[in-house]
Design goal:
Chain A has helices at 3-28, 80-97, 117-131, 142-154, 189-197, 211-227, 245-254, 267-278, 295-301, 321-334, 340-359, 365-373, 429-434; strands at 66-73, 100-101, 104-112, 135-137, 159-161, 177-179, 202-208, 230-237, 258-261, 286-288, 309-312, 385-387, 393-404, 410-421. With 445 residues, chain A is an alpha/beta fold. In chain A, the strands form two sheets. In chain A, strands 7, 8, 9, 10, 11, 12, 13 and 14 form an eight-stranded mixed beta sheet that branches. Chain A has a six-stranded mixed beta sheet with strand order 2-3-1-4-5-6, sandwiched between helices. In chain A, helix 2 packs across helix 11, helix 3 runs parallel beside helix 4 and helix 8 crosses helix 9. Chain B is mainly alpha-helical. Chain B has one domain (24-327): ABC transporter involved in vitamin B12 uptake, BtuC (Orthogonal Bundle), CATH 1.10.3470. Chain B has a two-stranded antiparallel sheet with strand order 1-2. At the A-B interface, helix 1, helix 3, helix 4 and helix 6 of A face helix 1, helix 2, helix 12, helix 13 and helix 14 of B.
Chain lengths: 445, 342
């Protein structure tokens, strides 16, 4: 190789590379290399999300002050759609109600966890150690939520969640953690009982083969067998299954009276429903969980999804002033009916605002979470709700079905509301917690 | 020689800065730097194979995750620390042996595909064996040993581990075994006709690389004090390869620079730039196009200019990606040189 003849293009390439490297390395500040000048990593103010206040007092605020909330959601990666909905729901609450509560201004610092628990942890560390937030809200995936709750709680900082991961408010209960939502199993207990009451004696369940699916099916199986039914077969499919044909034929061969589908939503729900209908199973009674017949499925399937029965705490077509106000405002901004995740985040913001009102803007670790836990709502996007003593919602579960709205869009409407459903259903806290968390091998309390 | 002296001074200065960092930086940045060093350690384990032997693995997160799960399980079972570490070592050796035995007769794309598959197997096991691994939800509350509780103490351990890996690779590169590996990279058939056991050398190389990956795994779980199957995900393995290529394949410090860029983007820049994955992709494309030897390769080419004294070039400064393709007869050589006759 003759380097002299290559001199010029070589240095041009180096120049481009150098420019890019400098850009990235300066942007990364101290993170990039150890030889970078220490602590010169102050973020440019214009790029900082919402605000980057220097907070010396992480666990207090008070009238006239500012309370900072670290909001973690996955806005990139494979669950980016959920994270985006969460952010929209959160922002909508503060937009409609103003960002002051209890005499303090609420500021949000947004973080993207990319759906990865380790990234979520680093982001939580940044929020607590660098930004000095007073509390965190989110994330959504069970493993990210466990990781964040464990760390943030360990730092004495309150964290609010909408993730369904059962143990967050059960065997891993932490007085600094409050779930503004339901456990994955909670809304499926009444689904099992209802199915038996309809005269169905034998059921088949189809759930994704991981924590959320085990817990969803666990709720249904417990409710159904508890009422006297028998489970013919439990079918587990991998999350992200492309072809549901084999699972649908397994269900078909078992010839049950009723089938329960505990879907994680998204593409899984759509692909399952396509297989289900194309195998001529449309006439077999089917009951879905919270996340099966949600807006993601309805936007895609439209009329084909008409009539699906499911059990959820979020029903976009519920006859409630709170729900309809939220749906209307959300739709006018984003052009689509809000999903469960948007509603959950909206409610999470409402609960935080309520707790700030109750404490007069004081954020003081466990006391603040206690104040939030003491709130009750006569009406919310999830209907009338309260919290139990392990910081999880006790509230109504709706039996709902899909139908067309006046403008032709499909949504869920309420047929019946089962009031005051607890995460421990009818078993009682102690008896429930004596058993292990739901798993593939343990689905019946 | 002055060049040697300059190098010594540079090394001592860099070490001093690295050791002093936790005493001046805020704890969050120290945590971030630990992440960089741990990622660099995993990248180094891949580069040991890629740089020396031309064997690119995209399943090494699987080995690291196995060791990490051993520690996590040991902690939940309240085993003594030495027992935990022993368990992690045994698990690392067993898993590495599986990697080594299944790949020792392969090279190029086949090697890459088998490691990819093994990584996914480990991921699947982590997901399914939920009584041990906690399944998708993972395991929380895996506190690291008391002495390492503070973020600065743990950071110093990660620095020490990375320095150990650098020394280990430097010694290896100068050893006769290192020469054998480089010989295999250049021409497998030539090495076997010279009487070397190519298979045995590859087995040993994968085992040594696995040890470094296992060490990284122990640090990964201690860093997060939490574990979930994401540790074994394809994404982790692929990102480690990206670090190797960004920094410069076959270089001792390349993995650190690559890890700095990737971890910095993923964990830090993402707080400020929403489209950080795009940015990372663009940087990667730019490096592959304009500096196939990575950042370190480009730097040393610039420093040595036209002289290009062989003695000053780090051993094996060749890009693994082109040489990997070369093995398959897919590329025309590196730096515009025609391929050597095989």
């Amino acid at each position: 190789m003759d380097d002299r003849t290559r001199g010029k293009p070589g240095s041009w390439r180096l120049g481009v590379l150098g420019a890019i490297t400098v850009l990235v390395v300066t942007a990364c500040g101290g993170a990039a290399t150890t030889s970078a000048p220490p602590a010169s990593a102050a973020p440019p103010a214009s790029e900082a999300p919402a605000s980057a206040p220097a907070s010396e007092a992480p666990a207090s605020a008070g009238a006239g002050g500012t309370v900072t909330v670290g909001f973690i959601s996955p806005t990139t990666g494979f669950v980016a759609a959920l994270g985006t909905d969460m952010k929209r729901g959160w922002d909508l609450y503060w937009e409609l109600n103003g960002n002051t509560a209890g005499g303090v201004t609420v500021e949000t610092v947004y973080e993207d966890d990319a759906g990865d628990p380790e990234v979520a942890l680093t982001k939580a560390r940044r929020l607590v150690e660098e930004v000095g937030v007073d509390m965190t809200a989110g994330p959504i995936l069970a493993n990210t939520a466990y990781a964040v709750a464990d760390y943030v709680g360990g730092q004495g900082v309150p964290s609010f969640h909408i993730s369904g991961a059962d143990d967050l408010t059960q065997r891993q209960f932490n007085p600094l953690v409050l779930r503004v939502g339901y456990t994955s199993s909670q809304s499926n207990f009444p689904a099992g009982k209802w199915a038996f009451d309809q005269g169905y004696k034998e059921a088949v369940t189809i759930c994704p083969d991981y924590g959320f699916g085990w817990e969803s099916c666990g709720g249904f199986v417990s409710g159904f067998t508890g009422a006297g039914g028998t489970i013919k077969e439990q079918i587990w499919h991998p999350l992200g299954t492309q072809d549901f044909g084999t699972y649908v034929t397994q269900a078909q061969a078992a010839a049950p009276d009723v089938v329960f589908i505990g879907s994680a939503g998204g593409p899984d729900a759509i692909l399952f429903w396509e297989s289900w209908t194309s195998f001529g199973m449309g006439e077999t009674p089917l009951v879905g969980n919270c996340c099966f017949a949600d807006q993601v499925l309805l936007r895609d399937q439209g009329e084909a999804a008409n009539g699906i029965i499911s059990f959820s705490y979020w029903t976009e077509g519920a006859d409630s002033a709170e729900v309809q106000k939220f749906v209307e405002e959300y739709e006018s901004r984003h052009g689509e009916i809000p999903s469960l995740y948007a509603a959950g985040s909206y409610l999470m913001a409402q609960v935080i605002a309520g707790a700030l009102e109750a404490t007069g803007g004081q954020v003081d670790g466990e006391n603040f979470v206690k104040a939030a836990q003491g709130l009750t709502f006569d009406d919310s996007v999830y209907g009338p709700i309260a919290f139990d003593d392990t910081n999880n919602i006790v509230g109504g579960v709706n039996r709902e079905h899909v139908e067309a709205r006046d403008d032709g869009k499909y949504w869920n409407v309420v047929d019946e509301t089962i009031p005051d459903v607890s995460q421990f259903w009818t078993y009682g806290k102690d008896a429930f917690l004596a058993n292990p968390v739901f798993s593939r091998d343990f689905t019946s309390q | 020689m002055t060049a040697d002296r300059t190098r010594t001074v540079a090394i001592v200065a860099a070490l001093a800065v690295a050791v002093a960092a936790p005493f001046v930086l805020p704890t969050y940045l120290v945590t971030l730097l630990s992440l960089v060093f741990i990622a660099a350690l995993l990248a180094s384990s891949i580069d040991l194979l890629a740089g020396q032997g031309g064997l690119l693995s995209i399943g090494h997160a699987g080995i690291a995750a196995s060791a990490a799960y051993a520690i996590a399980w040991g902690t939940t079972e309240s085993l003594a620390l030495p027992v935990q570490l022993g368990l992690a070592l045994v698990v690392t050796l067993v898993v590495s042996a599986v990697y080594a035995l299944t790949t020792m007769r392969t090279r190029g794309i086949v090697f890459l595909m088998i490691t990819l598959a093994l990584g996914i197997v480990v991921y699947g096991l982590a997901l399914k064996l939920s009584t041990i691994t906690g399944g998708q939800n993972g395991l929380t509350g895996i506190d690291r040993p008391e002495v390492l509780a503070s973020s600065s103490a743990f950071y110093l351990l990660t620095v020490a581990a990375f320095v150990l890996a650098v020394v280990f690779r430097a010694v290896l590169a100068r050893s006769s075994f290192g020469l054998v590996l480089r010989g295999i990279r250049e021409s497998e058939s030539r090495m076997s006709s010279l009487g070397y056991s190519v298979t045995r050398a590859k087995f040993l190389a994968v085992m040594l690389s696995g040890l470094l990956a296992g060490l990284a795994g122990v640090l990964i779980v201690w860093q997060a004090e939490f574990i979930s199957p994401n540790v074994a995900s394809f994404n982790r393995s692929a990102m480690a390869v990206v670090m190797v290529i960004l920094g410069g394949t076959g270089t001792l410090l390349g993995p650190l620079i690559g890890a700095g860029v990737v971890v910095g983007t993923e964990h830090w820049l993402s707080s400020y730039v929403e489209r950080w994955p795009t940015l990372l992709g663009l940087v990667f494309i730019a490096v592959v196009l304009f500096a196939p030897g990575g950042v370190v390769g480009a730097f040393s080419r610039w420093r040595h200019g036209a002289v290009r004294d062989r003695q000053h070039v780090e051993p094996g400064t060749r890009a693994a990606l082109p040489s990997l393709l070369e093995d398959q007869g897919l590329a025309g050589g590196v730096d515009g040189r025609p391929s050597e006759p095989q």
